[in-house]
Each structure stands twice: as structure tokens, then as C-alpha cells.
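Slide 14.
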Amino acid sequence: MVIVLLGYYTTQAQIVCPSDTTISCSIFIDPSFTGTPDGPGFDQFAFRDTAIQTCPDDIIIQRTWVGIIDSLGSDTCIQLITIEVDSIPDFMGADTIRIQDGCLEEFDDMVQESLSLPCNLGIDSVDLDIIEDNCERSILTVDWVFGDQCRDTSIRLTQVLVIENKQVLNLGESTITSDSTGNSGGIELNSLCDPEEDISYEWSNGDVTASLSDVAAGNYTVTITNEAGCEQELSFTIGGAGIDSMQMDTMDMQMDTMDMQMDTMDMQMDTMDMQMDTMDIKMDTMDMQMDTMDMQMDTMDMQMDTMDMQMDTMDMQMDTMDMQMDTMDMQMDTMDMQMDTMDMPMDTMDMQMDTMDMQM
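Slide 15: predicted structure.
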């Protein structure tokens, strides 16, 4: 506290420190972030920082504020600033980074926007591994190794990088030189990326260079192919002194017509593909129906075989019954013969009795 005499009055000037605060180490400890003191009558404020606690724990800064009133004196107060030491980097929700029709070099800029590092962490290494790569897209894993300077440890984290709508060559605005004097036109392709693989070029006029030069006015196409066989086709028009605006418009219309024809052909191809798919589905359905019919026929054949077996069994049973009936008939005949044999003595006795009766 400073006592100041003003005329016949005595006033007390006391500095009021900003509140103690806790911040992450990615935030500056400038007073514009951590606060400034207050106190009427002071001409200026100054501060001195002293670290009273450091790694591996949170860092605590003791900020001593001094309020000065001209040459009359000064007053001080203490503010404590705690800086949290974090052990995990923040990707700010960007665990997967997508690049649309872009360059792999753009990854660095996108990482800088998405990565928030605590002040105790630094990047030790970054490794890219390709897990899928074709003409439409590439998927890579990004393995990060962060070094913790406070704890002398390292942290490994993985992001996924997806490059979609890939182009063989990502082009900016190409430079086209008009043919003003005859065979003086040219086309220079301006790539936005630095391709790491060999690129081949095939122009409609037979050239195989990356750019055309010393060519006449007219329409040109180029097919760009990379090592993987992916192709990209581009069309250009070189104007010239011998081509007036009407001819240029006609050429533009012809190019538009060609583009429309190409689009129509693409649609026709898509339609044919759909029709082929439909025919394949119908053929598959017919095959399934034929298989079902074959199974039904096999079932019917098995049922017929079973019925034939049952009929054969019944025939055998009928034959057995016929044989049994024949046996019974033979047994009855035998019994009849036996009865006849038994009747013969009786007939003899009857005859004898008749003879005796006659003799009597």
C-alpha cells in the first residue's frame, strides 16, 4: 500500500492483482490472456515471473506485479499462474483426415490446422503406411511419435489419411499460348503437386512430352497415365490469328458436343451394365428354378421307386398267398383220398353184409 499526500488530503493507493488462473500450456501467459492488475492512482504496472514448480508436475509461475506512482512509491501483489502439463496431443476431432482431389503435400498444412500440441510435447517422427491404393482413392495410416520433454517418455498415436477423387495429376490453371504466327502455340500443364512416380503423356498429335510447344491452333487432348495404369484425359483449345471468334465459338461448341456425346456414351454404357446385371439376375433366377425342378423330379423319381418297391412287395405277398392256397388245396385232396381209403373197408363190409343177406 502506498500513502499519497494530495494537498490537504491523504489517499491510499493499493494494487489489486488479477485472479489466480489455470491454463493449458498451449495458451500464451501474456497478461492479455491471464489478466492485468487494477488500482486507481497508479501510473504504470510491471511484473516479474518466477517458476516455483516445474516438470514433471504442472508448472506454477509466481507473477509479482508492481504498481508505480511516479516517484512517490510502489505497491506489489502476487498472482499464481498454473500451467497444466498434458501428456496427450489433441487432434481436435480429426482422427481421420480426408483430402478431396488434392495433393499428399497438403497433409502437412491440414495437420497443422488439426493438431494442438501441449508445450511439453514435440514431434519425434511421422510415418505413412499405405493400406489401400487404387485409381479412385488411397488410404494411409499416419503413425505419430510424440516426445514428452517433461517426463522423458514418448507417445504413439495413429491417424487415418484418406485421399479421395484422386487425379493422376492435380493440375492448376494450365498456360495456353496462342498460335499467332503459325505453329507457335503451346500448352503448359501446371501441376499443383510434385508426383513421386513416373507420369507418361500422350497427346492427340503424337507428342509424348509433358507440355506442347510450337504447334498450330486447334483442339488437343492429352492422356496422362501413372505407373499404376490410372488414366486422366484432358482437352485444350489453342487459338490463333487464323481463327476468328466465330470459329473459336464453333470449336467450343464442337468440344461441348463431344463432351455431351462422351457423357451420353457413359450413360449408355451404364445402362448396358445395368441391363447385363438384370440379365445375370434373371439367368440366376432361371438356374435356381431349374435346380428346384430337378430336385422335384428327383423327389418324384424317388417316390415312384418307392411305389414300385411297394408293388413288388405286394406281388411277392400275393404269390406267397397263392402258394399257401395251393398247399391247402393239396392238403384237402390228400384228406379226401384218405377219407376215400377209409370208406373202402366200409364198402367192402357192406357188400359182405349184402351177400350174407342174400344167402340167408
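Speaker note: The longest strand covers residues 121-133.
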